[in-house]
Amino acid sequence: MFTILDRYILRAIFGSVALVMGVLLTLGALFIFLSQQDDIGVGSYTNADALWFVLLNLPQKAWEFLPIGGLIGALTGLGLLARGSELTVMRAAGLSVWRIAGAALVAGLVLAIAGAAIGGTVAPPLAQMAKQQKAFGKFSNVSFVGGGGAWVRDGDLIVNVEQQTSDNEFGGMVVYRVMPDQSLASVGRASSARANSTGAWVLNGFNESRFEGDAVSARRSSTTMLDSRIDPEFLGLAVSDPSQLDTAALYRLIRHLDSNGLDNREPVFAFWSRVARTFAVVFGVLLAVPFVFGSLRAAGSGARTMVGLLLGIAFFTLQSALENGALVFDVNPVLLAWVPAASMGVLTAVLISRVR
């Protein structure tokens, strides 16, 4: 059962976290909007479209910022109580450090549940919608089909792209060439396609069938070039980025890859990274407890914010490094996903146990 003191601590933490998250999201929205300036004016993409793009991406940013927002907010909220000697009075009244940490744990769990709901269900489809609407604004003749790829027309070419393996490379591409009378001139399929620095596409393992009157001729080539204005930016929308799938869809994708004996490291890492990030929110809030009883007890809000920022930057740097290397290193993706959150959890437990 919650006591008056527990509720007092919870209000202090939630109030500060809300304030910090408001600041972080405002800065995040500003940076996203500034990043769109080069695209404004391309096609029918306007300032209003850029603002809508920002709004659709805010839930994803809230999910990404929540661990550091929880840490800084808890440092600020508990720090104000410590600076006013309120935590000292609580301890003198018989409230142990672990009891105060328990109240912080409840706050962290509430934030983690809210974050999981946003990051696992709301944010991914909205972020995907933002990318699609941006592509529709910038490019013409593009349509999307659920799970089957993107169909794009460029002059006499109609291209269907398949699985994306990197920013400029795709696991397969089907190329249809049509005549001025809209009759089919040829159809070819490449096992992989890559956009080079000049904008041309390098098609590997290309097999093509040409229709000439009543005859059909076949051509095979290990590598061929395709000159096209098609941009890989929106072709990539054909393939769902694991980080932009909701949790249920991500789990279904993993099971599908498992059942077909396909490489599932990237979606497995994305799934467990999302789970680990949820726990990181809890650890971030708890990590504030030993600091407010230690060297930051009488420090100002600026010093506490700086400590929170440094810890948050360290967490995100490690997370980003592991995300970029998840498919490079031959390491269990579940282990890689848990390294940042587990490190924060161990650090939190050690520091709280050393508080006197």
Write the layout of secondary structure elements.
Layout: H1 4-35, H2 47-83, H3 86-92, H4 97-138, E1 142-145, E2 149-154, E3 157-161, E4 164-166, E5 169-170, E6 173-178, E7 184-190, E8 192-195, E9 201-212, E10 215-226, H5 232-235, H6 247-259, H7 265-292, H8 301-325, H9 333-353
Antiparallel strand pairs: 1-2, 2-3, 3-6, 4-5, 5-8, 6-7, 7-9, 8-9, 9-10
How would you characterize the overall build of this protein?
The chain has 356 residues and is of the alpha+beta class. The protein folds into 2 domains: 4-139 and 241-353, no CATH class; 148-238, SH3 type barrels. It has 9 helices and 10 strands. Strands 1, 2, 3, 4, 5, 6, 7, 8, 9 and 10 form a 10-stranded antiparallel sheet that branches. A hairpin with a 2-residue loop joins strand 2 and strand 3 (157-161). Helix 2 packs antiparallel against helix 4 (97-138), helix 6 (247-259) crosses helix 7 (265-292) and helix 7 (265-292) packs parallel to helix 9 (333-353). The radius of gyration is 26 Å and the shape is elongated. The protein starts with a helix and ends with a helix.
Label this structure with key terms:
356 residues; alpha+beta; SH3 type barrels; 10-stranded antiparallel sheet; 9 helices
